[in-house]
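Field reference: sequence -> structure
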Amino acid sequence: MPGVAETSASVRVEVLGELRVLREGRALALPPSRRTRALLGFLAVTARPQLRPRLCDLLWDGPGDPRASLRWSLAKLRPLLDAPLPRLVTEGDAVGLALGPGALDLADVRGLLEGDVPAASLEALGRAAAVFRGELLEGLEVPGCFRFEEWAAAERAAARRLRLSILDALAARTQEGAPEEALVHARARVAVDPLAESGHAAVIRILARLGRAKEGLAQYDVCREILASALGAKPSAELEQARRSLTARAAAGSPRIPAGSPPSADPPPPPRRAPPAASPGPPFVGRAAELATLERLAAEVRAGSGRVLLVEGEPGVGKSRLLDELAARFVRAGGQVTRGRAYEAEMLRPYAAWLEVLRGAPLAALDPLHLAELAPLLPELGPPAPASDEGRLFDAVVRALATLATARPLLVVLDDAQWLDERSSALLHAAARSLHDAPVLVACAARAAELADNPAALRVARALARGDAATRLELGPLAAAEVAALARSLDPALDAARLHAESEGNPLLALELARALRAGGGPTRSLDLLLAERLERVAGPARELLPWAAALGRSFRAERLAHVAGLPAPELLRGIDELERRGLLRPAGEGAYDFTHDLVRRAAYRALSAPRRQLLHRAVARALAPLPDPDGTLAGEVAHHAALGDDAELAVPAAIAAAGRAARLFACAEARGLVERGLQFAARFPAQARISASLALLRVAVDASRTGGGDPGLVPRIQALVDEARAQGLRGEEAAGLGILAHAHYASRDTGHAGELLERQALPAQPDGAVAVCEVAGCLALLERDLPRARLLVEEGRRLGRVPPRAAVYLATAAGVIHALDGELAEAARSFEEALNVAPEGAPWEECAILARLALVELTRGRPERAIACAARMEEAGPRLGATGEGLVPGALRTVARRVAGEPVPDAQLLGTLAPLELDSGARFAELCCAVAEGELARGRVEPCRSLLGRAVAAAERVARPSLVLRARALLAKVAAPAPAETPGTGTHRAGWSNAAGEHP
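Structure field:
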């Protein structure tokens, strides 16, 4: 059987713990890109060639060029794996790893056990247990890559089960002859799975056998506390029986302990070391050329020109410290500073970094109207301005920064920009382009290597670097004299030359090496090990706080940390003071704290076992979930922690709320990501709850897809849930699913299928009935399907009184459509105005659709000036609707209204604005063609209408709009009627649309 030895020249890949590649026994530096490391881990664990399309779907599913990204990652892995022999093999469209015997730890374990744990020898079990360093691919998470995350979760669970079975077998086989050894294995099992009572019971039984009742009772108390806090459960009969074995053994007398075992009495606790004296923060050294650049940029900003600064470099090289120095100098020169920071844990929380920027700015200086425009982002500012869209939201933020800068020049700092979410990246790009005439300096810091894992941030960084107002600084290592200055700030006696050589000029590594040497530690090149040793020296309340602070994953307010950790105020303050004194935490604004460096946060987080992390995240989610969250701003945090805590009951509703907020803020990619994450957890629910939750999530996905013209891929997923609900007799879920399915078809412009579904849809009972009545009424009216039922539902909806805003919009719109079909144009206009008044903010596509209907009614009423006003409102509200569909309507509507009003609009211009709508928005095309034809016929111009009305009939039939078909055919009949004799002097125009002059006569 294969062993675990390796030849001196071999390459070994280890996946049981943090991913490592070793050559000649030394760990190699892995590429910083998480997707590249995930690719290596996936190829190693699967141990077979994988097709390139699958790898692209797994790790690069999104915009951009996935194959190019895959090639880039493979190029980064070859130098690690292919010396001295090629191990990364590409044949045709397949990629794989050719690892020999002893070159993969997971294969070693499987070889030692030969697929049968019970039959394996004690020696093989011991060797297999020793191979595990932690969880499979521990700490390797790729936010946004849900297929990889799902695969990794399944593989980690399988590896954990294998490890637990090995430890169980070792504990059981050594319990009789070597109970101390059995205790080691049993405790290792508890560390791997602290939620399993059987593991705790095994530890207690072994402690009873050893006569260590006090330790056994302590273990029982630990298990009972875990069960109560994490699962809300009481000890099982097995655990209680194990506890009773402690007292039974004590009554019978101490057992005979094998020779060489330690005494049964608890050893005295080790003496507590006094904490090291506090030291001031390190000075800013070097960077003379960079400081000169900063001074130049600051002077240009003070002169009134907007500038952008992008600082790039590897972790620990001093990017944040340089921005700190810039901020200090900016304030001393009379400027003002506001800061934000992106966090890896918040990449699915839209605008997270910009929320910090805005909350740190003096917004009280803005007028109330401007504050209302910012309220969709910051609900604490008050009621939001109606009908806000992403374009107006961006404009509001940019104008706020420009307005604040009129008092004093403004510096906006965005740190760790490699983790900006997609919408924050877009807002950064908009701000950089729009603030060139305002005294604002936007300064960003990013890890260049990790930008490759975030396409949105990478695109913005590249765009900023190309701008005329942008300056890019790439920080390199410090020189020997600069490292010496850092070393002298800690201890003049330190060997500065040695520090520079070992740190290679990385300031953070140099500082940690200096601290380690000053404390008497040995030399090491691993920053992770240095930070881990530093964290191990923390004691008391500070040590209790560290895991909670690391699990939060971002900066935090003291009261939030106290809330999740459950510590009383005195202990909390002592702990924060100790962590700040040791240089682990730093103030991050009023009442807020953050780790001094993200690498410190990562080290504190990695020090926790995987089960402990899961328990912490679950506890954080349960602490945050009951807090008031009327706007869904907290839901993203709850969803994040519930997902990491494997708490499906919290993860699903939080994902629904967070995805809904993301969709309202036009963060459609983030909304889809939250929906997919929620669906993974909803799959664990019982049938009825699973179907209901999955439909709620997919409804949000449909809403998020509307700005992009719908997502046909959602239809089969919703249909499968509807079919399952029908098969199980869940009528309410079936009805709700049919409504969502109709919305999905409608969003994808498949109006025929949408109408058929709505005609079949039964309405659920109260309390959901009120919303369903309004929605079905609106959809049936809009699609002109089953209009008698639509009329009855409108009347029923009116009797219901107050309904949610979204339902009220459907109800008023349905009434307007029905009035228009009945020829009651004044009533139709009033209903559409009512729909506009009750429309919720953040739904520009709905507002534009209502405005278009109102404009067409006004055209029919002979009021083209009002139609032009509606087009202007659409152009304000709808720039984010894109260059197709509804996004084309305002321009066409304005042109048609001007022609109807009698303005000399050229035929070519009119046809040019109408033609793109013919395929993208057939109903709008047909309506506008009819409006043009009515205006032309009123002026006695017949011939120009013939071809246009023929196309209008075809478009109306294609989208199944009976009233439009009838209207267009009626107009065609007028065109076909004999023309009256031309009266001299009337100037009746009978030329075609393409007359030589192309002008309206």
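Note: Confidence is low (pLDDT under 50) at residues 1-9, 254-279, 879-884, 981-1001.
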